[in-house]
Amino acid sequence: MAHVYPSPTTLSGLSTLSGLEFSRNMLLTAATIALLGQQVTAAHLQARQSCPAIHIFGARETTAPAGYGSSNTVVNLILNAYPGSTAEAINYPACGGQSQCGGVTYANSAVQGTAAVASAVNSFNTRCPQTQLVLVGYSQGGQIMDNAFCGGGDTNIGLTNTAVPIQASAINMIKAAIFMGDPRYIYPLPYEVGTCRTQGFAPRPAGFSCPSASKIQSYCDAPDPYCCNGNNAQVHQGYGSTYGQQALAFVRGKLNGSTNPTTTTTRTTTPGGGQQTTTRATTTTTPGGNNNNCSAKWGQCGGISWTGPKCCQSGSTCQAQNAYYSQCL
Prior knowledge:
Structural class: alpha/beta
CATH architecture of the largest domain: 3-Layer(aba) Sandwich
Distance between the termini: 77 Å
Organism: Drechslerella dactyloides
Helix content: 25-40%
Oligomer: single chain
Domain CBM1: 293-329
Protein name: Acetylxylan esterase
Pfam families: CBM_1 (PF00734), Cutinase (PF01083)
Largest sheet: 6 strands, parallel
CATH topology of the largest domain: Rossmann fold
Region (Disordered): 255-286
CATH superfamily of the largest domain: Alpha/Beta hydrolase fold, catalytic domain
Strand order of the largest sheet: 2-1-3-4-6-5
Mean pLDDT: 80
CATH class of the largest domain: Alpha Beta
Strand content: 15-25%
């Protein structure tokens, strides 16, 4: 069979066409790259613009269902004081071998929790490097935040790495840390508040010094059997009501003055009876009855075993995330 070859004229035309197509493709590629660059820049700018001035991390106590647990009291006080602030709960087992939390040992839970605090804080700080951060930990939640914020390891749970796992830029932006009923309590560290003069069941070693000591308040009273050597478990659960306002005052003193808290008194009308409350500077209608202590946006508002507020302040609604945790969104 004879082979047919293209003529020189045809080859010339093909060569010219290929050059035109190449130029056009290059222009299209350049335009696409430029467009993608604009989209990335816009997305990056939008992410930065959506960053709050203040963000709070809350860590719950052993066996408390997913969410903030007893840290919620202080978390909500801060959210209410600083409109526009946001919060998130540390996701970790919060267990001590009990069946209701999956049987995870206390040591394993605390190790996971320490890593979870560092991961959550580092991730948020990378995304929002200018946001001021606040830590609020209760009981085991206080222990894992203590470990992550101060480093030093924790031989009580087998944590041998003594480095501070939270990155330096995030440590700089953590303006205040509140620990309540922290088993790592040992008297007399400079940031300790309360009547306990001994130590918890997982104390820091004698002479320990936290690099960020000036940013911490750790609350513990003598009758507490977990952060001290008492025998009254009810004291352990009462720090939010006993020291909540004191903790808020400490946080206020540490946050920069550019985010002044709201103290405007407004009238909130609710079906079933009017209420006069101190809230964000708005007048709103909130369904649900007596709601003068509703959770702020991002706060917890329900879930199995939840005993705190089950309503949300204006601008957010209570939405179930799972059976154990509902959040104002």
